[in-house]
Specification:
12 helices; TPR repeat; 2 domains; 342 residues; 9-stranded antiparallel beta sheet; globular; TPR-like_helical_dom_sf; two-stranded parallel sheet; alpha+beta; Serine Threonine Protein Phosphatase 5, Tetratricopeptide repeat
């Protein structure tokens, strides 16, 4: 679950800085919506399958539903519809919250069983879930959130910068976030055998600031989130203003992983072709969400390895300003900023 934290140190500090930001990118009032059967969820699949080898693997949803049917002798779509009907028929907030928690635990088990192998190298592509039974933190979290939404629940994805052991990373992990009818959040993490985790450092959307924020998380009994505190100013972030990451950010983050893991790219021994592939994916990641600091930082690292030093400096400076504005500058971006200013 946390192997990426040490390997990601190579990348820490990638981009920064203020990039053009438009109010048009502000998120809507509710949670970003991408239910499993929706066109919006299909865009995650389309982005992935556009890169699949030929002949192409079976479509992801068709494969997943067949695998679920074979394992559990029931239809996944019917199971989701039945769960939704039970939730809608449960008006009591506490009873409904218990059923919501049970639904998240069910989907946590199912995703781990149907896509059993964890892979940092290939698990961010939906077509590799079909080909190899592989998943990674972002894919599994987006899938669980989409399935929870299909069942009628408020759910999304947040990035992690500090794990339960107190280890910090440069946004090195992702989890699903479930907001219950009891007004409490739960973190659903398919990288762990147990469904609900207590990650004390998250990165999510602050609706009041209209921007992303690094936050510290306090937990109550049984792992429910008691509250969020902004790192930027040390002030509480009200639950109603804390939102999961939008679909533009999630698509950007998938592209970040494609750039990070491109063969011959910026991790490990690099080749000109590999670095060019990394740059293409990271440039697209920034187009999709200019305020994704990890993508901005990563592109600076690629440019530096390509010998494009002035472009690298600008990226590192932009990344540093982004991290700073959003409340936390990890060690890697700090080092990159010092290099850029030298």
């Amino acid at each position: 679950m946390f192997r990426r934290f040490s390997r990601r140190r190579v990348l820490q500090g990638l981009l920064g800085g203020l990039v053009l930001w438009s109010p048009a990118r502000a998120r809507p009032a509710g949670f970003p919506q991408y239910p499993y059967r929706s066109i919006v969820f299909g865009r995650f699949l389309d982005d992935s399958y556009a890169l699949a080898p030929t002949p192409g693997p079976k479509p992801f949803r068709e494969w997943l539903e067949a695998a679920y049917q074979a394992r559990y002798q029931e239809s996944l779509r019917q199971a989701l519809a039945q769960r939704r009907a039970r939730l809608e028929a449960t008006p009591d907030p506490r009873k409904r919250a218990a059923l919501e928690e049970a639904t998240a635990a069910w989907l946590h088990r199912a995703v781990k069983a149907l896509i059993p192998r964890f892979s940092l190298e290939r698990g961010f592509e939906f077509f590799n879930a079909v080909r190899f039974g592989e998943r990674q933190c972002l894919l599994q979290s987006v899938l669980i959130a989409g399935l929870l939404q299909e069942a009628g629940l408020e759910a999304g994805v947040a990035m992690v910068w500090k794990n339960p052991l107190g280890q910090e990373s440069n946004l090195g992990h992702a989890v699903a976030l479930l907001r219950g009818s009891d007004g409490q959040d739960r973190l659903v993490d398919a990288s762990d055998p147990t469904p609900f985790m207590r990650h004390p450092g998250l990165y999510l959307w602050d609706a009041s600031a209209r921007d992303y924020r690094f936050v510290e998380v306090s937990f109550g009994p049984e792992g429910v989130v008691r509250g969020y505190t902004r790192l930027a100013d040390g002030r509480p972030l009200p639950l109603g203003q804390a939102r999961p990451l939008d679909t533009a950010f999630l698509r950007s983050q998938f592209d970040y992983y494609r750039g990070e893991r491109a063969p011959g790219g910026f991790i490990g021994p690099s080749t000109p072709a590999g670095l060019e592939a990394s740059a293409r994916f990271l440039e697209r990641a920034i187009v999709r969400q200019p305020r994704n600091p990890l993508a901005v930082y990563g592109l600076g690292y690629v440019y530096r390895k390509q010998g494009r030093l002035e472009a690298a400096r600008k990226q590192f400076q932009r990344a540093y300003r982004l991290y700073l504005a959003q409340g936390h500058v990890p060690p890697g971006p700090q080092e990159a900023q010092r290099w850029a200013e030298a």
